[in-house]
Design brief:
Layout (H helix, E strand, L loop, with lengths): L4 E3 L9 H7 L8 E3 L9 H4 L4 H12 L5 H11 L12 E4 L2 E5 L9 H5 L2 H11 L5 E7 L3 H10 L5 E8 L5 H8 L6 E7 L2 H13 L1 H9 L2 E5 L5 H20 L9 E6 L4 H12 L3 E8 L4 H8 L1 E3 L20 H8 L4 H14 L1 E3 L2 H5 L4 E5 L2 H15 L5 H17 L5 E5 L7 H8 L8 H12 L5 H6 L8 E4 L3 H8 L4
Parallel strand pairs: 4-14, 5-6, 5-8, 6-7, 7-15, 9-10, 9-14, 10-13
Antiparallel strand pairs: 1-2, 3-4, 11-12
Helix pairs in contact: 1-6, 3-4, 3-11, 4-6, 11-12, 17-18, 17-19
Length: 496
């Protein structure tokens, strides 16, 4: 069955998967969503006999119906190879009765690698399929992880350039070092004076700038996105929830048909939306628990039915979740509103103008499988320390937020369903926060001394991604105001 993609904000003509991947964002500012969610064509039992790459093909072929088998398998096998430091790609680790789905074994030690390793291949394949002659300019805002994963994925990929904007003082030192040392003649990294929401809003404005698009086209360029708003980012994320369930089944931890819960540390909402899509495709998922840090806009939304970003923006030790505008939530809102694009456009306009919108009582009922929870900084640090002391397992700060919320949910609900926590980054990406949580005495060490101490404590080898940046020179030092982003893009493309 052919799956097409339509905008969440208008009834414009649906497009093929390859076109949606190329465009990134619909012309009306909406996000592309599938015209229907496909059902898995194989049973969980059959899938449990497959490796990650085979599972990825069985899931992604249902969404990307205009890709040939050869094209899609080439993309998958090019992405999920020796760049990952474990054969399983996304292994499960059990700690204190909870299964941690480790999504950080890729080139940049964060879960963004799961989708951004394959996106360049999907994008270049899509460009060929659609006879695109322009150079593709990937424009991305990052709260820390997407940027490096996108840079690593697109570096020196022929026919592409990539520009990443990040909040200058809003990412961890390791995250920043990973980005500013990025090699590749087609890469450009820019710090902005502002927060992630400012960077993301600025990028969306550039996408919507028709005069700029025309000028770029004349010069042989066109924008596409590597942010989670691109459907080519979302579809690969569905895979790891299918794979996680089949691993538990294969290992005898679940019986076929038995449900599991999923807890996801959430900023932009794409990762938990992928779990929701997996559930709708037939994976026996019961509750979808959305974990927030002190920027608990999503927790408040699930509690009240009002999404309100009019609040203080708090910088935390889990910076990839320091977000007040969760872009991917729009896809869920559109679905639970009965795919009413006019009503959705109205809500998004209200969010843009007033900073808030409300959903109806009927829509709230559609969210029955979701739960919201949040963890304070104190709770997050205490969790890292306790988990390490109890069983020697070290998590990063984002995973710890989910761990806290998981414990709270299980205690309050008495729900004993087997649970997967999405472990979204290696502790090595946030060494200072992690080591300080284990013992405040570590705060006096340098970042790379902490790396070595974490290696000693955890018994986990220092990832290649960290070793590489110890002595790497800074190659990107551009910093700009948020209203200068357009000028920076034009300068990098040689359009001034």
């Amino acid at each position: 069955m052919e799956i097409l993609y339509k905008s969440t904000r208008s009834n414009s003509e649906p497009v093929k998967a390859s076109e949606a991947i190329l465009k990134g964002l619909a012309k009306d500012g909406g996000l592309f969503v599938p015209t229907s969610l496909p059902k898995l064509s194989l049973s969980m039992e059959e899938l449990s006999k497959m490796n990650y790459q085979e599972t990825a093909y069985e899931v992604m072929k249902l969404f990307l119906t205009d890709f040939t088998e050869e094209e899609l398998k080439h993309c998958i096998n090019s992405a999920y190879d020796s760049k990952f430091d474990v054969e399983e790609i996304a292994p499960l680790a059990e700690a204190k009765g909870v299964y941690y789905l480790e999504l950080f074994h890729g080139a940049t030690i964060a879960f963004k690698d799961m989708a951004l390793s394959i996106l360049p291949h999907l994008l270049t394949t899509s460009a060929k399929k659609n006879n695109v002659k322009n150079e593709i300019v990937i424009l991305t805002a990052t709260s820390g992880d997407t940027g490096k994963a996108a840079l690593a994925g697109f570096a020196d990929v022929p026919g592409t350039k990539i520009i990443v904007f990040y909040p200058k003082n809003g990412v961890s030192p390791i995250q920043e070092k990973q980005m500013v040392t990025q090699k590749g003649s087609n890469t450009h990294v820019v710090g902005i004076h502002g927060n992630f929401d400012d960077a993301q809003t600025g990028v969306k404005k550039l996408f919507a700038d028709e005069a700029l698009a025309k000028e770029m086209d004349e010069k042989g360029f066109q924008f596409s996105s590597a942010n989670s708003i691109n459907i080519g980012r979302l579809v690969p994320q569905v895979v790891y929830y299918v794979y996680a369930y089949t691993r538990l089944l294969a290992n005898g931890k679940l019986s076929e048909g038995e449900k599991m819960n999923v807890v996801v540390p959430t900023g932009n909402f794409g990762n938990i939306l992928a779990a929701y899509y997996a559930k709708n495709m037939g994976v026996p998922i019961d509750k979808l628990v959305c974990a927030s840090n002190d920027n608990k806009v999503l927790y408040d939304f699930f509690r009240t039915g009002t999404y309100d970003r009019n609040r203080e923006f708090i910088l935390t030790s889990s910076p990839s979740m320091d977000i007040l505008i969760s872009s991917n939530l729009e896809r869920l809102i559109y679905k639970i509103a009965g795919e009413d694009s006019a009503a959705n456009a109205e809500r998004m306009d209200s969010l843009s103008r007033n900073g808030s919108y409300e959903i109806t009582e009927e829509m709230k009922k559609e969210l029955a499988d979701f739960r919201g929870g949040y963890a304070t900084e104190e709770e997050t640090f205490a969790f890292i320390k306790e988990l390490y002391e109890d069983c020697g397992y070290v998590t990063d700060t984002h995973t710890a937020v989910a761990g806290v919320v998981c414990e709270k949910y299980r205690k309050e609900s008495k729900d004993k369903t087997k649970t997967i926590v999405a472990s979204t980054a290696s502790p090595y990406k946030f060494t200072r926060s992690v080591m300080k949580a284990i013992d405040p005495k570590y705060d006096s060490m340098t970042d790379f001394e902490l790396v070595d101490e974490l290696c000693r404590l955890s018994g986990v080898a220092v990832p290649k991604a960290i070793e590489e940046i110890r002595t790497a020179p800074v190659l990107h030092d551009t910093v700009c105001e948020k209203d200068e982003m357009k000028a920076v893009v034009k300068k990098f493309l040689g359009m001034e």
